[in-house]
Every structure is written in structure tokens, then in C-alpha cells.
Amino acid sequence: MTKLSFGAALAAAALLTAAPAVAQSNPRVGGAAMYANKTIVENAVNSKDHTTLVAAVKAAGLVETLSGPGPFTVFAPTNAAFAKLPAGTVDTLVKPENKQALTGILTYHVVAGAMSARQITDAIKAGGGTATLTTVQGEPLTARLSGKSVILTDAKGGTSRVTIADVRQSNGVIHVVDTVLMPAA
């Protein structure tokens, strides 16, 4: 298993400072164009598939952080991913008294540095089939390949598939995932 930590050189290489056009390789997310010169938050608010995530980021007070320079790798759960949680979970988590738990879950979806799908895949191959990604929350995620798809396994044994990879942002990269990842704590 390979432990990943990415420094300033990797972060600088991942940052895109292109003209205001959509990067040729940037996929659309939730029906919206994703601009490489906008931040993670600026792009996420335009995705109709990420309204729950955006609301959760606001409730956790993470807008300023995820609008900052980063760089960050964000595994962004869709609305459908949040809908897989037990009924009432999201409504409970966004209450002010649950801000700490919500922040823990959201930061468990963030890795410091900008990691492309290729970099994650290469690390998995170098690690003999798995790679450990240390989240901003502090607990690890395990990455592996299933065919050509990256599969993330959380601290509780749940899995999430990357459905859209390499959505470049001015402060990192987003990989859309189909299930909310849960930390142990």
C-alpha cells in the first residue's frame, strides 16, 4: 500500500490559469460547464447534481476554505449519493448543533494537493493494487481499480465509484463520486 503526500511542485503543476474558456478536457457536471479558472465552490454551485453538497458545505462553514488557494482534491458526492443515506440523515447533519459531524464527513472527501485520476491510478498500480489517500479530516481512504474505474473504500468499509474524473478547478480538482464516504469517527 502506498501512502500519498503531495508537495508544492505537484500542486503548482495541477493549477490551471487558463483563459476564461472551459478547458478542452473539463467535463460538464450536473449539466453545467466547469471552468478551470474558477474555484471548487464557484463551479459546484452551478451543478444541478451537487445542490445537497453545496448546502452541506455552506452549513459546515467550509465555503471560504474551499474557495481558498488550496490546492485540493475533492471527491464530490452527487445529490443521488446523499439520497442513499438513511432517511433524515442530511436534514440532521445540516443542523447547527451537528456542524462538527458534518464538517468531519465533508473534510473526509478532501485530500490536500491536486491529484488527477492518472496520478491516483499510477499510485494504485505502484502500491500493488491499492493506494492510501490521507484526507484533510485525518483518516485514510483506500483507492483501488475496478476495470478502469477508481473505487474508494471508506473507514467503515463502504465504497464509492468515481463517475466523473478530472474536473479541473483554479484551486484543485474534483472527482464526482456516487456514494457519500464515511469516516470512522
UniProtKB/TrEMBL annotation:
SUPFAM superfamilies documented for this protein: FAS1 domain
Signal peptide, first to last residue: 1-23
Alphabetical keyword list: Signal
Annotated Pfam families: Fasciclin
GO cellular component: extracellular space
Annotated FAS1 domain residues: 37-181
Protein name as catalogued: Uncaracterized surface protein containing fasciclin (FAS1) repeats
